Amino acid sequence: MDKQLDAGDLDLTVLRELTALRSFAPSRGFSDRVMARVSLPQPAAVVLFRRAGAWVMQPRRAVTLAVAYAASVVIAVRLALPWLVGHAPALKLGAAWAGTQIGTLFNSVALSAADWAVRSGAADAVRAAASSGKVWPALAALTIGYAAGGYGFYTLLKTPGRTDAPVRA
Amino acid sequence: MATAKDLRTLGDREVVALAKAGKEAAYRELLSRYERPVFSLIYRMVRDRALAEDLAQETFIKVLNALDSYRPEFKFSSWIFKIANNAAIDQLRKRELNTLSLDGAPGARTAEEVEATALQAVDRTESPLAELESRELGSEIEQAIGRLRPEYRTAILLRHVEGRAYEEIAEVMDLPLGTVKTYIHRARLELREYLAHLRT
Question: Is A116 strand, coil or helix?
């Protein structure tokens, strides 16, 4: 500050000096030290899973849960086994019928798909693309699409659903 | 996905919303926006670099860990300055108590009791840190600011160094607008008095 100021200049000088005061910076690595102690929000599913894991991993709870699980399995098998043995012929018949139904459904879907491919010309297009060398760009596009889908899925899992929540002004 | 460059163009509220959604870059953006203003305010309040850094760190940790409780109808800057100012004022109060206890515990009667309960004052003029502080805060105006009452100091620093509006300062300091204006006016008068020796 200039020495020997007039009385009238002092007010203005004080204001000017105040406004011109430098700002101080904390030491290097300040933000990293802060970030190391900040817990970032996690997706609700991850938080729930971690909480459940932490709750279950308490030694006494873990032992209690393991014993309860083992007991429930023994009881279930003890109750279910005689019933299964008693109804074995009916169950076998039911399983065979279900297998036939599923096989028939699979066959009809496959035949319909093949019929559509031939009728719509898709099969010819694929054959033509394979012979003309266009199959590689198509495969590349498919791979990129697959990777983009994977990344999208990863992003969806990484950030909670409230990303786009509006903020009141 | 907003990049660091995009974040710089966003307002505080939008950056806070992204931080709430778990974006680490948004947290870092808030830190980079406010680390200097918050640290400068605290440093000028407590006038001890290491202590100011600890308090600034605690301020940011408190704020960033409590983003969910931030109410967007208030300015983010008001919120963070309020927490920083409270941290600095608490520290100054503690220091005041410690200064009083330099003369020994209030219950000390005999000379031995006084000596046993008195704090040892440390001569910091020799340490490099103290030298740095005396250089940084050594100008006439910095010294004059250091002589102001803490509440005057907060008000004048927020107004003239950080350029905050009177309304925001009132929010930060939890005071009526008129009181803030009075504080700033008195602080200016005191600064003029402290710097009066510069007159002809």
Answer: helix
With CA atoms as reference, the chain B residue closest to A7 would be B199
Q: How far is CA A158 from the centre of its chain?
A: 6
Q: For chain B, list the domains and their CATH numbers.
A: 138-200 (1.10.10.10)
Global ipTM: 0.78
Top residue of A12, A19, A40, A159 to mutate, by most chain B CBs within 10 Å, is A40
pLDDT one-digit tens code per residue, A62-109: 888 899 999 999 999 988 888 888 898 999 999 999 999 999 999 999
Contacting residues of B for A14, CB less than 8 Å apart? 141, 188, 191-192, 195
pLDDT in tens, A108-154: 999 999 999 999 988 888 888 778 777 788 889 999 999 999 998 88
**Which of B121, B122, B125 is closest to B104 using CA atoms?**
B121
Chain B residue nearest residue A8, CA to CA = B199
pTM value surpassing 0.80: no
Q: DSSP states of B15-37 as a string?
A: HHHHHHTT-HHHHHHHHHHHHHH
Of the candidates A34, A40, A159, which has its C-beta nearest B57's C-beta?
A34
